[in-house]
Amino acid sequence: MRLRTKEVQSNTISQLLSKNIATLGFIGYLPVAPGTFGSLAGFVTFLLIKDLPVSVYILTISAVFVTGVFASRRAEILFKEKDAHCIVIDEFAGFLLSVLFLPKEITYLLSAFILFRFFDILKPPPIRLIERSVKGGLGIMLDDLVAAFYANICIQLWRYLVAN
Question: Against a cut of 0.85, is the pTM above it?
Fold first, then answer.
């Protein structure tokens, strides 16, 4: 019986942790545009870690991605809703990827923010297909990373084709 009480406490702490990671604390519960605010949290975080070496930055994105897969999968089960609106760790990770290898200038960062949100909301092929066909935490995280990839590629192309 005592073991069972420990299991319940452990599950409760684990559930609370999964929800808080997946929703970035209170951000996912905001009544308006939680995804945009999740991306904004990524923007602010980027400003704090922008001077990290690229290899550490890539490891950080990878850690956020893997953590997001597990936390959002668990949160999806707890919320009993596929890709619940309050899960915003995917937008957080997406913004961090959308600025990878870009100059750390505010115009590039704002462009990446706007383009990432554009692709995340519009979901051009194959983003919507990924969202529908890949289940669980991987599906939640993966479609946003593809949207971030699109945003990053657009800005990289603009840099090389127009800005130079």
Answer: yes
The b-or-e profile of 26-52 (16+ CB within 10 A means b, else e) is ebbebeeebbbbbbbbbbebbeeeeee
Task: State the pLDDT at residue 4.
Answer: 52
By C-alpha distance, which of 159, 70, 67 is closest to 107?
159
Distance, in Å, from the CA atom of 57 to the CA atom of 120, rounded to the nearest integer, reads 22
Is the pLDDT confidence value at 46 over 70?
Answer: yes
Burial level of 158, CB count in 10 A (0-12/13-18/19+)?
Answer: middle
Measured distance CA(99)–CA(102) in Å, rounded:
5
Which 8-state DSSP code applies to residue 135? -
Residue 42 C-alpha from the chain's centroid: 8
For the chain, helix (H) and strand (E) counts, in that order, are 7, 0
SS3 per-residue string spanning 54-116: HHHHHHHHHHHHHHHHHHHHHHHHHHCCCCCCCCCHHHHHHHHHHCCCCCCCHHHHHHHHHHH
